[in-house]
Amino acid sequence: MKNFKHYIYIVAGLVWLSACKPEINTPKPSHGSADFSRYIAIGNSLTAGYADGGLYRAGQQNSYPSIIAQQMQQVGGGTFSQPLFTTDQANGSGYLTLTGFNPDGTPITTPVTTNLAVRGILPVPGFGNVTLYTKYTGDINNYGVPGIKLQQITYAPYGNLNGFYERLLPNDAPTNNTAYIDFVTAKPFTFFSNWLGNNDALSYATSGGAGDVLTDKSQFAQLYAYLIARMTANGAKGVVATVPDVTSIPYFNTITTTAILAGVQKANPQVQAIYINALVSGTTYAPRAATAKDLIILTFPTSKIGQPVQTPYGALPYGLTPYTPIDNQYVLDANEVALTEDYVDSYNATIKAVAASKGLAVFDAHTFLQNLKEHGLVEQGVQLSSAYISGGIFSLDGIHLTPRGYAIVANGFIGAINAKYGASIPMADVSNYNGVKFP
Amino acid sequence: MLIIAPVLSYAQGFQVNLEGEKQIGMGHTGTGLAQDGAAVFFNPGAVAMLPQNYVQGGISPLMFQSVFNPAGTTEQFHTANKIAPPFTFYGVWGPKDGIWKLGLGVYTPFGGLTDWGTTWPGKYSSELLDLKAFYFQPTLSVKVTDFMSIGAGFVYNYGTVDLTRAIPLANGSGQPGQAELKGNGHGYGWNAGVYFKTESGVTVGITHRSQVTTTINGGDAMFTVPASLQAQFPQPNQFTASIPLPATNSVGFGFHPNSKWTYVLDMNFVSWHVYKTLSFDYKINTPFLQDTNEPRDYVDAFTFRIGTQYQACQKWAVRAGAGFATAAAPDNYVTPEVPDAARYFLTVGLGYKLASRLDLDASFEFEHLNARTQTNAYTQLSGTYSSHVYIPGISLSYHW
What we know:
The complex is a heterodimer of chains A (about 450) and B (about 400).
Chain A: H1 4-19, E1 39-43, H2 45-48, H3 57-61, H4 64-72, E2 95-101, E3 107-112, E4 118-124, E5 128-133, H5 163-166, H6 180-184, E6 191-195, H7 198-206, H8 217-231, E7 237-241, H9 257-267, E8 275-281, E9 284-289, E10 295-296, E11 308-311, E12 314-317, E13 331-332, H10 334-358, E14 361-363, H11 365-375, E15 377-379, E16 382-384, H12 403-421
Parallel strand pairs in A: 1-6, 6-7, 7-14
Antiparallel strand pairs in A: 2-3, 4-5, 8-9, 10-13, 11-12, 15-16
Helix pairs in contact in A: 4-12, 7-10, 8-10
Chain B: H1 21-25, H2 39-42, E1 54-59, E2 62-70, E3 77-78, E4 83-84, E5 87-93, E6 100-115, E7 128-145, E8 148-167, E9 177-197, E10 203-209, E11 212-224, E12 237-245, E13 248-255, E14 261-270, E15 277-282, E16 292-295, E17 301-311, E18 316-325, E19 343-355, E20 358-375, E21 382-399
Antiparallel strand pairs in B: 1-5, 1-21, 2-3, 2-4, 2-21, 5-6, 6-7, 7-8, 8-9, 9-10, 9-11, 10-13, 11-12, 12-15, 13-14, 14-17, 15-16, 17-18, 18-19, 19-20, 20-21
């Protein structure tokens, strides 16, 4: 067949065309003036990859330092080791999963209690019980320790009081005597990220101002300067992050006093107010009617409202009279909010000043979460907000982030690093990371 | 609340402009020529001036290849290699030496096929768009005088659309949900033109193709989401959407210096400004599934085309053409299913007389859309697009 040859040409032509795809020339990524060959991350639960009320393997794998390190590998970053739980003990400390919704639309969460890495409970006199986890003995780049405050980084016995730190140390509690700052600086590094300081305010806030205290402002300033001096002692460059406003997280914005009152009024229209035990000044607390400025914590068992409580005046309904206010531990009242915000502002002024003095990059997490709360965020066609579950950023505990939230934070750090050091670390693809998982 | 906002659109990229192989070979010009049955599309006014009757059909397999480079990365994401098949059919008949002719055109002036896949960074904006618009156009043309003819056609449009995108609601294994909107609809319009033979020998055509608003009623809205949220995405559900396919005004000139050479020049003005918003109205709404109203704010676009034909001998004709078009999508409104941009195109064509009444025409067009770095105002999808289009084509015409 004479035309056969022509068909061959046509087919070959079509193959050639489909191989000839358009391309976009992009500049080669650069590390700028920084050296990422050994990057370490220090910080608390956010740095460790804590999510859904627990530290577990999948969360660790989506930690923002891990995402940053993956991107750094395109500009000379080295291997990045994390103290992962093993696959057999992948559920680590245990965590919450979303298992459904009540008819009123409120979520049902269920704890995961299998395949944990819990190795024992150590009672520490005068402190309480410390949950101990299976030790991790390998190399570490991510030193994130859930629960740690800046205030605790020089406290040598801390390794006996925090199971998440204890599992990284060679000795068993209660024989540890290595301060966090000494532990993380023991091995040389060229670049670091530091997001310490959250718990110095957050631990006070999440306990409704009842279970912890705010770290003193001048102690914070002194320790922060000491920390950064130690981290930069050998010439390492780095990036630090500010402390978010605690009221920008869904832990304080999901259950509202207005919603509780509306719920009560449905059954009992004559109820005028709910009552809380609120800070007056110093350490003086007194009951008063709640306003929208008083924040109720996410874990408040709303079923307590209206339950009879014995008082000198007889049995009165919980939360509905000045004699039976909602307990302090469930409420971050308006004065406590103002107090916390004042401390956080001071902490952030310290962080920015110290970072500037050492020429470090700053990721302003405070501004980022404030903008998220006020305006929401659209990223690659996904609408995000600081709303609980539907917002896509915060995990089921209402404090820590989802993989998507951590990826956005990682890009925030990368942007700050690139700007400061003239680098061009490629951004992570946020669309690859999920929000809350639905059953 | 999460609002699911499917995106459907088209642009100059989806004004297909492949309505006859002879004309494609000459830069897709023909408003000012009475060349063959494709005049039904190019200028109904010229149909009465056609020397013969025509039955012809053609196909132009179109390969649209786009690449996306997300802002701040070195990654490149390509559309899948898929071939959209625009086709044409024309019939023209009139009494020998009569002053009128009847015509029928079936063609595909709008359409698009962009398949970015389900794993690319813009998946929450668009994974797949498959849009087809078929126009059926009966036409009457009358020779008013020896040097002027007019014509008009009625347009019935049948359109189909299939679009998918990911929904940012992860299931237990972290996989996102999927939305698919699939439906068909129709619309009406018209097409008219006037054609002059001037004393200098230059031929001139002026045409108007009206806006055709295609309305999709009762299309299927299918959502795959985690089971605990399925009630928020009721199934079955339906959607209504209305898409204005814009009007086009054209003016064209044909120059015939001798029997071997023809030169052609066309200009098109496309009224894309009618495409202001893209709205989807769902039959059943829930707090999670709201009707959507996305701004598009397209602007009118302009196309300039030139072409030439050299009749080498009785059997062979060689053609070439080129042109450029401005973008219809303004900055900040470029979407991945239509990575619209200013573009240029080059065409070549070959005509061969198989028999005295049978023509075989082949054409090839290459189109390059300029690289365009964009952040979409609605989705914040940010990056650089670049696109190539390759369009071989072939047609067969019988005339008597």
